[in-house]
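User: I want to check something. If I give you two sequences, will you return the structure for each one separately, not as a complex?

Assistant: Yes, each is folded on its own. Here is the first sequence with its structure:
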Amino acid sequence: MTPGRLLWFLPLVPVLLLAALLWRGLITHDETIPSARVGRPLPLLALPRLDAPQETVDAAAIAARAPVLVNFFASWCGPCRVEHPLLEELAKEDVAIIGIAYKDAADDTRRFLARLGNPFADVLVDADGRALIDFGASGVPESFLVDADGRIVWHQPGPLTPEIIARELEPRLAALKKEEKAR
């Protein structure tokens, strides 16, 4: 090939470089959405219990169970049904999980838990959706890991998956449990 013919391919160089950069961006893309609540204390809340609506649970009561996973869910939420068996497995491994039923009728929540099992140490009701907003969440399911100081240390928007649990949740839980033992 003559040097003159090589010049014909010169315009391809920037295109190939751009394609390589885009490919690199695709394969190294971090799919997590940063949460403004991570590193901050639990929002002030007082939510009624599903089965004892006259009793409320506040942020201090949630933190007292730390490390605790707070999971927003709803009976009408398809991804919540997909995620639910994973929550059941976590509960069997002694992970404290508090469920917050988001904008769900109490009877629907009870039927959902009766049908799929109840992995939650406590089920709270967010009837008007205010708690979800205060947590900085955008929908269900979403999960927040809380430490003994009542600080949110991790947030998972969307359903938990086995990969997310293994890669992100379990190491954080282990670290929090180790911190608890050192106290």
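And separately, the second sequence with its own structure:
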Amino acid sequence: MNLGLDMSLKLQQKLSFQMIQSLKLLQVNTLQLEQLMKTELEMNPVLEAGDELEGEEAQEYEEEKETTDEKEEELDVNEDSIDWEEYLEEGFDLGYSFNEEVDRNEERYEPTPVYQVTLEEHLLKQLSEKKIEDEKMLLLVQFLIGSLDADGYLRVDPEDIADYTQTTVYDVEEALNLLKNMDPPGVGARNLRECMMLQLRAKKLHDSLAMKIIDQKWNLFEKLKIPEISRCFGVEPREIQEAMEILRVLTPKPGYQYNHDRPSTIIPDLIVEKIDGNFVVMLNDRSVPSLHINKSYANMIKRGSTAKRDVKKYIREKFNSATWFIRSIEQRKTTMLKVMYAIIERQTIFFEKGPPNLHPLKLQDVADMVEMHISTVSRVTSNKYVQTKHGIFELKYFFTEAVGKNTDGGDISSERIKNRIRQLIESENRKKPLSDQKISDVLSQENLPVARRTVAKYREQMKLLPARLRQKYD
């Protein structure tokens, strides 16, 4: 064994905390950026939010404030000078009548419920109104309510509940029947079939054809085999479709309306408008405060300051961190605008005419145009949306692959094919729906050659039913 000491040089690249923070800022959307800024403001005393007022501006602000106060004083009205007779003749308009012109550019906020009743609270309230005297039964129903999942289903086996609560299965079934008679209809069901039957009973459709389909031909109903079901009941396929229209409006998840995890509203990060013939990109960052350095802390690290050395060291660290954070946000804005302008340049027809005029585009193409790394473009386009006159789109939407070439040698984007397939299916004759092969033939005639299996793949991605299940019967 040879023991000894060796010395060698090695280059190693490491990402600093500031670099990681800068990359993170690129990836977040506007709402997440606002949260990050609030956190940074709480942790860094050198950082301040709001408009920084210089000396003269602050003086102007004070003068303007004094002028406003004087005007408000002038608006004081002497009630003795009011002609009350004329006022009574004209009516009791308290000023709530809306005669002003509506400003379309006025910012409006969607009301968000502060508190929402949960499914458990809604059911417990109904249970208290029933005034059940049997305390054991009352506790058992409360236990069942607490065992429901977010969809309102009871996934636990009654035998397991009986063992756990030291009761009988008969008692559990009796408590379950009480629960199933509560609102919303279908709550307490153990599967989708039972849930639909409970809702049909609540609608007084015990003897309807829809109930018979669910009760007797569930396997055929799952596969939507309408001709087979019609032969089983000896009725026309049209009657089966009418019964399925009743089933279509039932709620498969009765507890969904009490679920708090609903999709949030999309707020665009960028806005594209056409002004004087040119597309202009604006950042939708009105809710994001502007940041600046606190002057008092900045003066403490200047030469000649009387602050202690350890205090200066602490302030200098926070000062450097705040400066880097502000620069990173400015860099984020610049990068987002560059990438958006590059997308507009490559997808100009889309912004002019809207979908489906989308050309094939790769992240690498935009990265080459803005002279940045593809990972930077990927971060910028991740989880962000842009508002156009054609609607709100995710930035990733503009990147679509080419699935082939037309007879003119031009690339065909997958998004363009999908949009055309959707249009053809939406405008087809439902009595004779277009098959995948027929759609492929129509696309080929329109200089968009794609194979039948490609049509089937895109149709499934868009969750569109095959021709057999889209057919309507007379």
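Because they were folded independently, the notes below concern the second chain alone. The CA atoms of residues 220 and 229 lie 7 Å apart. The chain is about 50% helix and 5% strand.
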